[in-house]
Amino acid sequence: QVQLVESGGGSVQAGGSLRLSCAASGRTFSNYAMGWFRQAPGKEREFVAATSWNGGNTYYADSPKGRFTISRGNAKNTVYLQMNSLKPEDTAVYYCAARVMGGLGYFESEYDYWGQGTQVTVSS
After folding, report:
1. Which in 56, 72, 73, 109 has the greatest CB count within 10 A?
2. Residue 75: pLDDT above 80?
3. Cα distances (Å, whole numbers) of residue 60 to 27, 52, 120
4. C-alpha dist (Å) from residue 89 to 14, 59, 71
């Protein structure tokens, strides 16, 4: 059974940092592209960042660009999202996703597996 489990969410003040982790199990995800999405209250889920299967290519949405960093663990079955200089507008449930195709994915429809999400709350 394929499973993605996010961790590392929590509450932080504006300007603070959090590091989200996503552990994949059930398949060998080393050849899969991975991504992070988020959904704020009352809004649609939106793309945050993506990394290719080997971590060689990354892409970010405009809002978190320069503040967030996506990376893969050495075993490639883990993906991280380092979030710095957090803003109240970053408050959302953050989801990890895996894409069978190894290239970058920017849209929800391009991803095949999803985690349950982890809450990030940034207070002003």
Report:
1. 72
2. no
3. 26, 12, 18
4. 10, 20, 22
